[in-house]
Design brief:
Layout (H helix, E strand, L loop, with lengths): L1 H19 L6 E5 L3 H12 L6 E5 L3 H13 L6 E4 L3 H5 L4 E4 L4 H13 L9 E5 L5 H14 L5 E5 L2 E2 L1 H7 L2 E6 L2 H11 L3 E8 L3 H29 L4 H8 L7 H4 L23 H17 L7 H12 L12 H4 L5
Parallel strand pairs: 1-2, 1-4, 2-3, 4-5, 5-6, 8-9
Antiparallel strand pairs: 7-8
């Protein structure tokens, strides 16, 4: 009994020593400060301790400098901020690198520049978190490049595309779809939860993007069908609000009908009620649909509605009255009553 008591005391002493040990300074890099990345980087920095450092980089240096000034001016504290000269410069001393870039070619070029640079030694494995929405094959290619450049577990690459739009990025309520081995889930979650609300582990590297593109393919189809159904009802003389209320308690209920209804005035908070401004841009939907089609071809998965949906979004975006607006603007393109 005395031996057990002595062991317990030793363990408790070890725990106290560990918990009182000074926390190691962590270095972060955030690369890509577009509408989403700008807000995500802001939330990440604000929730890190002052002992940490975040290095910012964007091809638009003005965006990085503006964000750094805003971060430095805030009263709530947060990590120290630096503006980097390049993606490689931002990543050189980083323990964790977060990227949020527009297209596959941007992701590949950025990581090529990082991996070819002189990366300084770090106390533990580097973690690269890519929040870009690209095709899974391109993401796996980058992951392989990281493994080759940083062998024996010196670096790990995971995919974590997000859902929630600029509003969610600003509010810190994004949902991340994580593609990573089980061994990296906890470490990835700690970073992602500083920028969002939920992290859904979808499987190994590449699985997060597969889940994101499958969801957005479905969303693209639902959005067109909802616009057509609402326009059909209007042509038959139905009150749009009445029709929406019927759909939303019936089997046709979906996010475009309930939250992002394409008819102005049906849902006051929807983009349609503010001339389709804000929301999820029709250009972004075209991009995600294109990536989903590419991924489906590589997986030999049949998509019978994909080509027609692409035609609809391309035609709608080509019209000045629809260009740059929320993707629900296809209702306007269809000739729906506003």
């Amino acid at each position: 009994m005395r031996t057990k008591t002595r062991l317990c005391k030793q363990l408790l002493a070890q725990r106290r020593t560990f918990s009182s040990t000074a926390r190691r300074l962590d270095n972060y890099a955030f690369i890509g400060l577009g509408q989403m990345g700008y807000q995500m980087a802001r939330n990440l920095q604000s929730k890190l301790p002052p002992s940490d450092i975040v290095r910012l980089y964007d091809i638009n240096r003005g965006a990085a400098e503006k964000l750094a000034q805003e971060m430095s001016a805030q009263q709530a504290g947060g990590a120290s901020v630096r503006v980097a000269e390049s993606a490689a410069d931002a990543s050189r001393e980083a323990d964790t690198v977060v990227t949020c870039l527009p297209e596959p070619q941007h992701v590949k070029a950025t990581y090529e520049s990082i991996l070819k640079s002189e990366l300084s030694a770090r106390p533990g494995p580097r973690l690269f978190i890519d929040c870009s929405t690209i095709d899974p094959t391109s993401s796996r290619e980058v992951a392989a490049a990281v493994d080759k450049a940083l062998p024996n577990g010196q670096g790990h690459f995971v995919d974590a595309p997000m859902s929630g739009g600029v509003v969610g990025a600003t509010a810190g309520t994004l949902t991340f779809m994580l593609g990573a081995p089980e061994s990296l889930v906890s470490r990835s979650e700690i970073v992602l939860q500083r920028m969002g609300k939920r992290v859904l582990h979808c499987g190994p590297q590449g699985a997060g993007l597969a889940a994101k593109l499958a969801n957005n393919y479905l969303l693209a189809i639902e959005n067109i069908a909802t616009a057509e159904a609402m326009n059909l009802g209007a042509q038959w003389g139905l009150d749009p609000k009445v029709l929406a209320s019927v759909i939303n308690v019936s089997t046709g209920k979906c996010w475009p009908s309930e939250v992002n209804n394409p008819v102005p005035g049906v849902v006051e908070t929807a983009p349609a009620s503010r001339d389709y401004s804000g929301g999820f841009g029709i250009g972004l939907m075209r991009k995600d649909l294109r990536l989903a089609i590419l991924a489906a071809k590589e997986a030999d998965a049949k998509l019978v509605l994909a080509d027609k949906a692409s035609e609809v979004y391309e035609a709608a975006e080509s019209e000045e009255r629809c260009k740059g607006r929320d993707f629900s603007v296809v209702y306007r393109w269809l000739g729906g009553k506003e």
